[in-house]
Amino acid sequence: MKKFSILLGTFLALFFMACEGPAGPPGFDGKDGKDGIDGSIFEALVFEIDVDLTYNASNNTYVFNEAFSAHNIELFQNDAILVYRLEEVDNSLDVWRQLPQPFFTDLGLLYYNFDFTQNDYSIYVEPDFDAASVAQSLVTNQIFRVLIIPADVNLSSKMDKSNINAVMNAIGVTEKDVKHFKMN
User: Fold this and answer.
1) Averaged over 63-71, what is the pLDDT?
2) With DSSP H G I counted as helix, E B as strand and the rest as coil, what are the percentages for the chain, rounded to 5?
3) Which secondary-structure segment (H or E) carries 169?
4) Which label site among 2, 103, 150, 181 has the fewest CB atoms less than 10 Å from its CB?
5) How many Cα neighbours within 13 Å face the side chain of 101?
6) DSSP 8-state class, residue 32
7) pLDDT at position 154, please?
């Protein structure tokens, strides 16, 4: 039995040694075995505009409208935007409010609101009273931040999108990345 054990051990040792060979060529990175481009095709973009909204008597609103192409920006199908209004600066810190935003005045309620297409976006002041009575301080020198969210970015449904800093962090944009445009 001892001879059999030695013989079996020797055979197994030779067998396993025979299974080793030189290392093969390095493999490819990537899921499908091919190296590809890292990241998304379109990165998130944040820009800030300083605007005067224009009175529109026929719609009882103030509005600012602009094509994305005015700043060489291309929106792709299913991309989205979020818009925030600079409410105030408190101890050197910007206070941003997400649109739509209700605003109470002595005359009644008004909303800062927005809409967009793949080609352009509009920002509105929509009062529930005569728009001609809106205080000029609410429609001139207004600063808005527009965050373009690529379709392939998955923002958590639990994320507080009213927190501009959380959203910017989630899309990988810092303050130094924000583009500034003065439209007045």
Assistant:
1) 94
2) 20, 35, 45
3) helix 164-171
4) 2
5) 19
6) T
7) 67
- Banded model confidence at residue 88, pLDDT cuts 50, 70, 90: very high
Contact 61, 126 (CB under 8 A): yes
112-134 pLDDT, tens digit each: 999 999 999 999 999 999 999 99
Cα-based distances in Å from 55 to 29, 87, 96, 122, 170: 56, 21, 24, 13, 36
Contact yes or no for 164/145 (Cβ under 8 A): yes
DSSP structure class, residue 41:
S
Residue recorded with tokens 């001892």 = 2
Q: Which amino acid is at 136?
A: Q
What is the predicted pLDDT for the residue at 36? 45
pTM summary value: 0.73
Positive or negative, the Cα torsion across 173, 177, 183, 184?
Answer: positive
